[in-house]
Specification:
The protein is built from 5 helices and 25 strands. It starts with 8 loop residues before the first helix and ends in a 5-residue tail after the last strand. Helices cover 11% and strands 34% of the residues. By secondary structure, the chain is mainly β. A 5-stranded mixed β-sheet has the order 21-20-22-23-24, with no helix packed on it. It has a 4-stranded antiparallel β-sheet with strand order 3-2-1-25, with no helix packed on it.
Length: 385
Amino acid sequence: MANWSELNVDILTSVIERLTNLSDHVRVSGVCSSWRSIAKEYRRKLTHQVHPGLMIPGPSAGSRTFLPLPETFSGQQPPSLCVPQDLKCIGSHQGWLALLDETFLNMYLLNPFTGKKRNLPSLAFIRTSYLHRWNVDKAVISSSPCEFNCIILIFYGESGLAYCRLSEDNISSWTNVDRGYIDDDHGLYGFSDALYFKERFYLVDHHGTIFTLNLDGSSRVVFLEKLELQPRGTIYKNKFYLVDVDGELYRVLREFYVGENLYYGDDSDSDEEEEKSGGGMFSTRGFQLCKLDRRNKKWIIVRDLCTNHHALFLGFNNSLCLSQKGNNRICFTDDRISEPFCVMWQGFDMGVFDLEDRTIKPLYSSASIRCIKDQPAIWIVPLPW
């Protein structure tokens, strides 16, 4: 063929669909603009087929380690990622990390698999707004930062929300979200998670109450709206997540108890760990799921995810759902935020919750993973774009 850019679209699509190696996908995207546009359309589907791994502290100050899931781990030396350890990782989505310099409140997005970087506006305004607690707890990313009109939403302070938009050439400044007429009782302790779902953000607070946030650009003032229909069984001081499961909105409740060993399945004396935690460590004891039935305006309790063999990945990352034969589990990392007057030892509360037998097992053996309080493990999908 004289001009490969004129290859039939259906044939090219068929070829791209058969690519299982990410490096091959990148090479196809680099052939020409027409191939790249078709490959880009397929990325959304490919993103939901790639297994995430854990990013954990690395051997040097300028790096971290990417640890694949045990079932995909070949036994070779885990790859190193060029991510400085003095930066706080507060989010992850489609291969990109949200990184924060807590000293100067500078934030940027980084894809450690490609080296691509997107700088974000300074967060210095947080210091003037929240003098006593101006840390940023989490960043939720609407789509790949490579795509047009990507939105970054952050939780900061006790109940602060702000967002900015990315485009190919421009970055907007941070815009604070007005909580409107929401009861103070539902925002006092901040938000637990958010999800960009069906063209808008959905948020859940620490009471389990769900809100919507419409950023259609029709007004300079953006209000947070409480979803009228609320799920039952909300329990204060547990943690909640929102996740898209086959196009349906799920709310996941993570339940804790106090005083357990730092490693699941460890029957050894835990005095050393108790000393580290100050004797007040939380650990996960189970999960509860429910999904929103919009047509009948009610929440439905979900016992498991075995119908389509789903696995959920929860933590500082954008909550993620993957489908693979044999899956019916929740893989979780330690994403608790230390609050004033609360003694917590971050970094060790991670595991795999089996939705069938309701048991928790370790993600990895305790010897193969190293986490510290300020750098807990985070899920990241190794996507090279």
